[in-house]
Amino acid sequence: MRACVQQRFHQLPHTRFSFLHPPRIHAYTVANVENPLAPTRENYAYANVFLWNTMIRKQAENGDITRDTPLLYYIQGLRTGLRPNGQTFMYLLKALVSGKNVNEGEEVHASVVRTGFASSEFVSGALLGFYVANGFTCKARQVFDEMPQPGLVLWTLMIRAYVCQTLPGEALELFRTMRGVGVMPDMVAIATVVSACGLLGDLGFAKTMHCFVEKSGIEVDAFVCSSLINTYGECGSLDDAYRFFRETAMKNVVVWNTMIHQSLEHNNLELGKQLFDSMPERDVASWNSMIRGFANVGQYEEALALFHDMEISVFRPNTLTLLSTLSACASHGALEAGAWIHSYVNNNDLNRDGSLDSSLIDMYSKCGDIAKAVQIFEESPRRDLITWTSIICGLAMHGDGKNALCYFSEMNESQVSPDEVTMVGVLSACAHAGLLEQGQGYFQSMEKVFGLVPKIEHYGCMVDLLGRMGCLKEAYDLIMGMPMEANEIIWGSFLSACRVYNNVELGEVAAKRMLELDPHDPWGRVMLSNIYAEDAKYDRSMGLRKEIKEKRLKKSPGCSSIEVNGSVHGFLVEDNSHPCYNEINSMLEKIEKLMN
């Protein structure tokens, strides 16, 4: 890297010019226009550090680091006899952060040490920020440890670096060291440490921090309050979070939203709704939390009702609102409601950049309108990984394996690399289309071509594919050779294939494994009983049926649903709880008479 910079340096003109007036060059850089005395930008013989710093700073502000790197200007200044000051290094590191130039940053670090600025808290803070922004936490800690007496800002920055890298243990240990040397935290440091407690799930330390804040007299703001509520919730104590929420006087809309979010995260819908209804002031985030919370726990109808309430309120739904609502429609099978939201999006021009296309494709696929999903994909201006994956998985879900694989080929030609979810869709498409050789080829290419390690979902797809094609021995060998233990879904898929091809021996093995995983699930016994019956082993079949009855094991009832006027009605086997049960039965009887 240094050799390249030096080579570019020697290519620059070094003609001496008369005295440069600093305000004049500064005016050109502020205006961001070409300096008519451009050659003099590279002649530092009569320039001063102010001009030097100004040019580096403007590069940082304008992001102009592609033609001449900031380090190039820095080295050129050194060659002309200029000596850097603290601002030189701060501007230089800021410019390098924007360009993610790690190697050049290390060059600057070495120069900081050589010139004696390593003891400057401001320069060390800039170095720390540079390494943290590029993910080099260990090097940031090295800079921190070399500081003789770091101030509160550097302590907080280093603690926050550990939190951002999901290293809460190191963050809390550093905080203990900070308190040991007598540095008193402020609100920002407290909020950062409290967040570390949440990541670690350490309820005891979270309570200790809470007590420390109350006894220390530190003024608590909304940021600290929200952090404490979040931490209590993430540590599994919604009661402590709610108790603190009730006691604190600092309740702005952010604190209210945090408490609502934690209530819904703990599936306490009643408390979340109560808080939402009691809010003195709401914002879009309040509505989004409620819609997403109800959708996450399967209360899709309530989530859609909240969206309609929001739509007629003073708040306009944003992208996050629509993502949560479309997800609710997809999971609930609410095609009519999803189509209405699609129309709302188009009428209000809320999908100009195509960011909602993948969610719309997913919604239409899961609601049964795959033709509309394909249409949206073909018209989408955004062909990213998520969009490609959505249409491939949607087609696979509908059994259209051949078209799914065609889109996968187009995706590869577009230089978009698949991820694990994409490959689940591809392997599922092969299973539905009965493409054994292609499925095996794609499975083997995961590691060899795409660098993806197959997970249990991918093995499950391959077991399904082999089972559908009657390759039961190969499926069993694959299960036994898996790097992880097969779950009940994989054994269930294999057991279904054993029943289709009436393989009693392997069916017994699969059923036994299923019983070991879940002794109270009757499904494995029912399937094995059917296999015995089809093989004329009636004694064994009746024995399993008797066992199911004696142990009072019950299968989960079958369920169907239908959407009428925007509402989805669900029906279970032998369920008479629907409010229109009598009317529905009466109509079915009339239809049956007419058919006869």
Question: What would a concise description of this structure say?
Answer:
By secondary structure, this protein is mainly α.
Layout of helices and strands, plus pairs?
Elements: H1 2-10, H2 22-31, H3 49-62, H4 70-79, H5 86-99, H6 102-114, H7 121-133, H8 137-145, H9 152-164, H10 168-180, H11 187-200, H12 203-216, H13 222-234, H14 238-247, H15 253-265, H16 269-278, H17 284-296, H18 300-311, H19 319-332, H20 335-347, H21 357-366, H22 370-379, H23 385-397, H24 401-413, H25 420-433, H26 436-448, H27 456-468, H28 472-480, H29 488-500, H30 504-517, H31 523-534, H32 538-550, E1 559-564, E2 567-572, H33 581-595
Antiparallel strand pairs: 1-2
Helix pairs in contact: 1-4, 2-3, 3-4, 3-5, 5-6, 5-7, 6-7, 7-8, 7-9, 8-9, 9-10, 9-11, 10-11, 11-12, 11-13, 13-14, 13-15, 14-15, 15-16, 15-17, 16-17, 17-18, 17-19, 18-19, 19-20, 19-21, 21-22, 21-23, 22-23, 23-24, 23-25, 24-25, 25-26, 25-27, 26-27, 27-28, 27-29, 28-29, 29-30, 29-31, ...
